[in-house]
Write a structure and sequence with these properties.
The chain folds into 3 domains: 70 residues, Winged helix-like DNA-binding domain superfamily/Winged helix DNA-binding domain (Arc Repressor Mutant, subunit A, Orthogonal Bundle); 131 residues, Nucleotidyltransferase, domain 5 (2-Layer Sandwich), CATH 3.30.420; 170 residues, ATPase, nucleotide binding domain (Nucleotidyltransferase, domain 5). The strands form 3 sheets. It has a 5-stranded mixed beta sheet, sandwiched between helices. With 407 residues, it is of the alpha/beta class.
Length: 407
C-alpha cells in the first residue's frame, strides 16, 4: 500500500496558494500583513512573494508609510497578467464570464439553450459563441487568455468520462470541445466549481468544513472538508441530488424513484405545485427559469396561497434532505446557491433551518449556519475560472497541489 506524503515542494505550493488567497481577499497587503493572515513565517512569505513576483502573478502596488520605520511595500495580484474565462454550461443556458488574472470580472455573455436539446454540436456551438462574445465585450483576444474553465452539467466517473447519472453527450466529446475552443482548458462539474467559489470568495474564509447546495434544474452539494474540496475516488462526490429522499417516490430524470432532485429541483417544485393545485397556471409554465421567477413573483403580497404551500412543502423536503447531509458530513455551514436559491432562498431558509434542526441527529445542527451564499454573480463561472487559474499556476510551475488534471 502506497502512502502519499507531502514533499517540501508541495508545502511550498500550498504556501503560494495561501498567499494568493489572502491577497485575493485583501485586494492589497504588505508582506507582514500576509504573514499575519496566513500564519506563515515572514521568511516563507518573503520566498513565496519572490516566486510570485518573478512569475508576474503578483505586482508591487505602492508604498505605505507607518508611524515608525521605513515605508512598507504593498502587493496585489497582477490583473494585467492575462485573462481567465469561466464558462457555466447549464441545462437552460451557457454563460461565459471573462476575468482578469486577479479574478475581477471584466465582461460576460449568455446564450439561451433549449433544455430538451442536448446534442453535442448544439452544446459546443453555444459554448464557443458565448466564449467569443464575452471576449469581444471584454476587448480581449485569444492571445490574452491564460486558461478557460468549462463546467458541464452531470457528474463524472473519471476526468472526461460520461456520467451514468444525468448523462450529457458533451462529456463523450471533450476532444471536440477542446479543438473548437483551441485554448488551454480544464473541465469539471458545477459542484466542484461552486465549492471552489465558496472556498475562495464566500464562507470558506470563515468555515473550514461547509457544504454549498446548488439549486436549479438539478441539485447537488459541493462539499469542503477542513479546507479541501471533497472529490471522491472518481470525482463523483456531491451528487446528493440523486440520493434517496422518498422510497418508491417520484420518478427522477436519472431513472430512479424518490431522488432529492425530484422534489427540490425546479421541475420537482413545479410538480409539487401541480399536486397542490392541478389547474394553477404556473404548473404549466414550460421553461424552468421562467417558472421559478414567476413563483417568486407570486410570493409578493398578497401572496398566492397555493404558492405559499408549495414553498412550505419544498422547504420540508429540502430541510429533510439537508439533515441527511448534516448527519454524514457534520459541517459548520450550509450555503444555498444557484438560480432557484437566488429567487426563493429568502423564503425557504427559515423553514429549512427549522426542519434541519428537528431532524439532524443529536446536536449536529445546534450551531449550524444555513443561509443563501454571499458569492454573488454566477458562482459556477467564478469557481470554474478559479480552477482554470489554479491550472495555469500549475502549468507555469507555481502550484503542484490542489489542481485538477488538465484536459
Amino acid at each position: 500500500m502506497s502512502i502519499n506524503r507531502r514533499t517540501s515542494r508541495d508545502i511550498r505550493s500550498e504556501s503560494r496558494l495561501d498567499v494568493l488567497h489572502a491577497l485575493l481577499l485583501a485586494g492589497e497587503a504588505s508582506r507582514g500583513d500576509l504573514a499575519g493572515v496566513t500564519g506563515l513565517s515572514s521568511a516563507t512569505v518573503a520566498t513565496v512573494v519572490s516566486d510570485l513576483l518573478e512569475g508576474g502573478i503578483v505586482t508591487e502596488a505602492g508604498l505605505t508609510s507607518g508611524r515608525v520605520g521605513r515605508p512598507t511595500t504593498t502587493l496585489r495580484l497582477n490583473g494585467n497578467r492575462g485573462r481567465i474565462v469561466g464558462i457555466d454550461v447549464a441545462e437552460t443556458y451557457v454563460r461565459a464570464v471573462v476575468f482578469d488574472a486577479a479574478l475581477d470580472e471584466r465582461a460576460s455573455a449568455e446564450v439561451a439553450t433549449d433544455e430538451h436539446h442536448e446534442e453535442t454540436d448544439y452544446v459546443i456551438d453555444a459554448i464557443v459563441l458565448a466564449l467569443d462574445t464575452a471576449l469581444g465585450r471584454a476587448g480581449a483576444t485569444r492571445e490574452d487568455v491564460l486558461g478557460v474553465g468549462v463546467s458541464l452539467p452531470g457528474g463524472m466517473q473519471r476526468w472526461g468520462a460520461v456520467s451514468v447519472v444525468v448523462p450529457n453527450a458533451t462529456w463523450n466529446h471533450i476532444d471536440r470541445l477542446r479543438e473548437r475552443i483551441d485554448l488551454p482548458i480544464v473541465v469539471d462539474n458545477p459542484l466542484k466549481a461552486i465549492a471552489t467559489a465558496e472556498l475562495w470568495f464566500g464562507e470558506g474564509r470563515r468555515n473550514a468544513s461547509m457544504i454549498t447546495v446548488n439549486l436549479g434544474t438539478g441539485v447537488g452539494a459541493g462539499i469542503v472538508l477542513e479546507g479541501t474540496i471533497l472529490r471522491g475516488a472518481t470525482n463523483f462526490a456531491g451528487e446528493w441530488g440523486h440520493s434517496l429522499l422518498s422510497l418508491d417516490g417520484r420518478e427522477c430524470r436519472c431513472g430512479r424513484r424518490g431522488c432529492v432532485e425530484a422534489y427540490v429541483g425546479a421541475a420537482g417544485i413545479q410538480r409539487t405545485l401541480g399536486a397542490i393545485s392541478p389547474e394553477h397556471p404556473l404548473a404549466a409554465v414550460p421553461m424552468q427559469r421562467e417558472f421559478i421567477g414567476a413563483l417568486a413573483a407570486a410570493l409578493a403580497p398578497p401572496a398566492d396561497p397555493a404558492v405559499i404551500e408549495t414553498i412550505e412543502q419544498t422547504a420540508r423536503y429540502l430541510g429533510s434532505a439537508i439533515a441527511d447531509l448534516v448527519a454524514i458530513v457534520n459541517p459548520e455551514m450550509i450555503a444555498l446557491t444557484g438560480w432557484t436559491a437566488w429567487a426563493l432562498g429568502d423564503h425557504l431558509v427559515p423553514a429549512v433551518r427549522r426542519r434541519v434542526r428537528q431532524e439532524a441527529p443529536g446536536d449536529s445542527a445546534a450551531d449550524l449556519a444555513i443561509a443563501v451564499s454571499t458569492v454573488r454573480g454566477n458562482s459556477v463561472a467564478t469557481g470554474i475560472a478559479t480552477i482554470a487559474l489554479e491550472r495555469f499556476l500549475g502549468d507555469v510551475g507555481l502550484v503542484t497541489t490542489r489542481v485538477p488534471t488538465a484536459l
